[in-house]
Amino acid sequence: FHSFYSLLVIVLIHILSSIHFRWEEERSTDGSKWKFLEHKGPVLAPPYEPLPGHVRFFYDGKLLRLSAPAEEVATFFAKMLDHEYTTKEMFRKNFYKDWRKEMTSEEKSKITDINKCNFTEMSEYFKAQSEARKQMSKDEKLKIKEENERILQEYGFCVMDNHKERIGNFRIEPPGLFRGRGDHPKMGMLKRRIRPEDIIINCSKDSKHPKPPQGTRWKEVRHDNKVTWLVSWTENIQGSIKYIMLNPSSRIKGEKDWQKYETARRLKKCVERLRAQYREDWKSKEMRVRQRAVALYFIDKLALRAGNEKEEGETADTVGCCSLRVEHIKLYSKMDDQEYVVEFDFLGKDSIRYYNKMPVEKRVFKNLQLFLENKQPEDDLFDRLNTSILNKHLQELMDGLTAKVFRTYNASITLQQQLKELTTDESIPAKILSYNRANRAVAILCNHQRAAPKTFEKSMQNLQTKIDEKQKQLSATRKQLKGAKTEHKASHDDRSKKKAVQRIEEQLMKLQMQATDREENKQIALGTSKLNYLDPRISVAWVKKWDVPMEKIYNKTQREKFAWAIDMAEEDYEF
Ligand SMILES: *[C@@H]1O[C@H](CO)[C@@H](O)[C@H](O)[C@H]1NC(C)=O
Ligand SMILES: *[C@@H]1O[C@H](CO)[C@@H](O)[C@H](O)[C@H]1NC(C)=O
Ligand SMILES: *[C@@H]1O[C@H](CO)[C@@H](O)[C@H](O)[C@H]1NC(C)=O
Ligand SMILES: *[C@@H]1O[C@H](CO)[C@@H](O)[C@H](O)[C@H]1NC(C)=O
Ligand SMILES: CC(=O)N[C@H]1CO[C@H](CO)[C@@H](O)[C@@H]1O
Known about the structure:
Helix content is 50%, strand content 10%. The protein is α+β, with helices and mostly antiparallel strands and 575 residues long. The strands form five sheets. It has a four-stranded mixed β-sheet, with no helix packed on it. It has 18 helices and 15 strands. 25% of the residues are buried. Helix 7 (251-281) crosses helix 11 (403-422), helix 11 packs antiparallel against helix 12 and helix 13 runs antiparallel to helix 14. The chain has helices at residues 2-28, 68-79, 89-102, 105-110, 120-134, 138-155, 251-281, 287-302, 362-372, 387-397, 403-422, 428-445, 456-486, 491-520, 527-532, 536-546, 556-561, 563-568, and strands spanning 37-38, 58-59, 62-63, 117-118, 157-160, 163-166, 176-177, 190-191, 200-202, 220-222, 231-234, 241-244, 329-335, 338-347, 353-359. Residues 1-18 form the signal peptide. It is an enzyme of class 5 (isomerase).
C-alpha cells in the first residue's frame, strides 16, 4: 500500500517537473520557432488610377498633359500641397530630382523649374474627393466597411503551428513622398511602389504558398522557421528591410515584449554593481577603459542611445553615444551655480535635436577634458570606442544588456516613481492628468519631442470656448440656487439644484484638466515611450489600484498589444 503511494508521488513529481521543463523550454526559444506557417501574403497597394481629364496641370501658365508615371508622382506632391513640407527647400529639391526620373524625355525638356509648376487643380481635386468621402451615405460607408472586413478575414490571419494568429500590418504601404521626422535630409524623395517582384515570402514548405497577382512572381519564397516575419522587402529610401509580422497581440509578440521588460527588471537588480564598476573604471590606466566607462555613465544617466544601432541612411548624420564628436559637447567648469557642467547638442535618431545641460561628477569632467585634448571639432570624442565594443562590454556585464535596456529600465522606474509621487486620491480626471504627467516625464527623458501639431491653437481655442460656456452655466445655476434659498423654496427643488451645480462643477473641472493636459503635451510625443519603454505591468497595476478605467490609459490597439500584462495582473507591482 505504502509503495503504491510512493510510486504515485514519484509519478506526480515527474509529471510536474516535465510541465515545468516544457514551460521553460517554450520561453527560451524566444518564441520564434514554428513548425508550420501558412498565410495569404500581403495586400499590395492598389494600382494608380489616372486623373480624370478635367483635372489639369499647368507649367509656366500653360496646360501640360503628363504621362501616367510622371502624373502619379506629381499627385503625391499635390496631395501634400497644403502641408508645410512642400515649402521646404530640401523637400522640393529631393522631390523634383526623383520626379524627373519618371518623366518622358519630352517632359524633362519642358519642365525645368519646379517653381513654375502649378499643382493647384490636382490639389483641389483630392480635397474634393476626401470631402466626398466624408459625405458618403451610410450605405456606402457600410459597403466599404464590409469590404475591409472581408480583406481582413482573408489576409489578416495566418496559421502558425496550431494557432490562428492575427497578422500585424498586412497591407503594403502605397507609394508616396518620404517625410521623415525632423529635418530629414531625404525628405521629399519618392518612396517607390512595392511590386511582387520585390517581395520575399517566408512560409512552411508544406503549406499552401501565397499566390502572387496574375502575371507576376514573388522575388523569392523562403522556408526559415527561425524568423517570425511572413513577408519582407527592402524600401528604397533608407535601404532598410521592412517586414510583415504577427500582430502585437499574438502569443509570440507578447512573449518577446514580456522578455524585454524582464531583462530591464534584471538590470534593476544589478545596476548598483554596474555603477560601482564604471566609477572604478574612470580611474583606469587604459584610455579605452576610461572612455567606455564615461560612455556607459552617459547611457545610464542620460538614457542616450549607443549610436548607429540601426543603419541610418548614409547621408543622415545622426549621432548616438559612441559616435559623439568633439563639436557636440561643451564643458563648463562653472555655470550659474553649478560645477562641472556638460552641454550636449547634436542630432539624434530620426534627426531630432538632442540638447541638454547636465552637471557631472568631477572625475567624469576631468576625463572628458582629457578626451578632448588635441582634437579637432569633427574628431570622435570616444576615439577608442565603437558600438560593437560597447555592446560586447554590456553583454559581459549582464546577459542581454544593451543601451536600450538602460532606457527601458530608466523609463519604467521613472514612471513608477512619478506615479507614486503624483497620484493622489482625487477625481478620475485628476488621476489621469497625473498619469499623463508621469508619462511626460519619461518622454522628456527619452527625448521624444514633436513639433506642436498644426491644429493645436485651434483645438485649444475650442476647448477654451467650452470652458467659458461651462463657467457661465455654472454661475447661472449657482445664482438660481441662491435665489431658491432666499425664497425658502421647497427643499426638494433645492436639493436637485445643488446636484446640478455639483455636476456642472465636475464637468468644468474635467474640461480644465483636459486643457492643462493638452497644453503641457504640446511638444511631447507620449506614444513611443508608452509603446516601447514603459513596462505595461506598472500601468496596469496603477489602473487597478486607483480604479481608473483601462481605456483611459490604453486605447484599443494598445490594449491588444499589452493583453499579456493586463491578463497577468500582478497586484501591487514593484518594478
Ligand atoms: C494655378 O492654376 C489655377 C487654375 O487651375 C489658377 O487659378 C492659379 O492662378 C494658378 N496659379 C498660379 C500661381 O499661376
Ligand atoms: C534616469 O535618467 C535621469 C536623467 O535623464 C537620471 O537623472 C536618473 O538618475 C536616471 N535614473 C535611473 C534610476 O537610472
Ligand atoms: C570597433 O573597434 C574594434 C577594435 O578597434 C574593431 O576591431 C572593429 O572592427 C570596430 N567595429 C566597427 C563596427 O567599427
Ligand atoms: C492608439 O494610440 C496610438 C498613439 O499612442 C495611435 O497611433 C493609434 O492610432 C491609437 N489607436 C486607436 C485604435 O485609437
Ligand atoms: C532560408 C532563409 O534564407 N531564411 C531567411 C528568412 O529571412 C531572414 C531575414 O532576412 C534571414 O535571416 C533568413 O536567412
